[in-house]
Amino acid sequence: MSTDRLFRFPKPAWLNSANTRTAGVYLAGAFFSLGFFFFIDASVFSKSPLNGSIVHITFVDWIPVICSALGMLVINSIEKSRLSADSFSYSGNGVAWKARTVLFLGFALMAGGLAGSVTVMVLKYLFKDYALRTVYMGVANVVANGLVMLSSVILWVSQNMEDDYTYNLQL
Amino acid sequence: MTAGLKTIIALSFVLAIGFLLVILSAALFHNFLTLIVVATYVVAPLPNWIAGRCANPDDFIESNSSAWLDLGRFVTGFLVVMGIALPVLLAHCALIQVPAMVMSIIGGLLIYGTIISFSQFFKEEQDF
């Protein structure tokens, strides 16, 4: 495992322990929750009396978050070992190709969610002369999508730690 | 088990303080939205227990049995942060006052800490 590595610096040893992996999964859930509640906060704020403007959160604001969450679901429900399965004979015909297609769909959904949230913020809130507390609803949308993406990255990385650990466990 | 009676007394004391804080945060301000925190923290350990039953650690052929464990941990992390984020949300949108937010967060953390440390202290020895 150490002979075919790509970079000159080896991976630190704590990165492969089971505890780091568990903590990473917990952290991913925490970040997803934080992003989700940022957006819920924006939409509750939109209907609360603090929001003095006539601008409200509508379904347009919900679309990026829905795309991001769907993308996260798609990316993280793929079996990671199938992504490089073409070299094995037991794995049927074109499994890796199918897995990569679905993975591409997931990444496209997530990137589309983030880009869409920026679009909504710019077109709906920034181009007009709104007060800062109104612009907050757009900013919270971007923050929520960014946190969902960060959570997905953490979950992906910590699930890829699994391989070496389970390998050691099974031997 | 060496940590016996004293642990139980201390844990129940902390649990009572936690419930007292949450109920006071609701009753002092005549606004019972903060009681959701109790429900969140009581539900929070459940996904790990359920996922622990779904996953079979002895299963070497089906290598993805840890997916259930990961899902349980993910939902637990979600619920724990939800217990903090929900009062902050309610206070930010002026549905509850800020003192109620502080009291319910502290009370909720005490309740969750009691549940976690109870299950840590009195975990059954699993050597067979």
Structure commentary:
The complex is a heterodimer of chains A (171) and B (128). By secondary structure, chain A is an all-alpha fold. Chain A has one domain (18-165). Chain A contains 5 helices and no strands. Chain A has helices at 18-47, 59-76, 95-126, 132-160, 162-170. The longest helix of chain A has 32 residues, at 95-126. Chain A is elongated. The two termini of chain A are 15 Å apart. Chain B has 128 residues and is mainly α. Chain B has one domain (5-109). Chain B is built from 5 helices and no strands. In chain B, α1 (5-27) runs antiparallel to α5 (98-121), α2 packs parallel to α5 and α3 runs antiparallel to α4 (66-92). The longest helix of chain B has 27 residues, at 66-92. The model of chain B has no long low-confidence stretch (mean pLDDT 82). At the A-B interface, α1 and α5 of A face α4 of B.
Number of strands of chain B: 0
What's the assembly state of these chains?
heterodimer
How far apart are the termini of chain A? 15 Å
Share of helical residues of chain A = 55-70%
- Based on CA atoms alone, the radius of gyration of chain B comes out at 18 Å
Greatest contact pair? A-B, 26 and 23 residues
- How many domain modules of chain B? 1
Largest sheet, strands/sense/barrel of chain B: none
